[in-house]
Amino acid sequence: MRLTILRVVTKEKLKMFCPIVLLLIVALSTASDRWDPDGQVQYSPGSACIVLSAPHGGRQRPDWISDRRAVGCETADGDCRWNATCPGSSCRALLYGDPNTREIATAVRDYLTEDGLRPHLIANHMDRMKMDPNRGGPTLSEGIQCDPAAKRVYDSYHGFVRQAVDAVRRSCRGRGLLLDIHGQHHPQNWTEIGYLLRKSQLNSGQYPAASTSIRGLVGRSSRDSASSLSARKFIIGDRSFGSLLNSFGYRVVPSASVPAPETGGYYSGGFITRQYGSLTGGEFDSMQVEITQAVMYASEAERDRFSRHLAATIGLFARANGYA
Ligand SMILES: [Zn+2]
Question: Which of 313, 308, 181, 305 lies closest to 255 in space, CA to CA?
Answer without folding.
Answer: 313
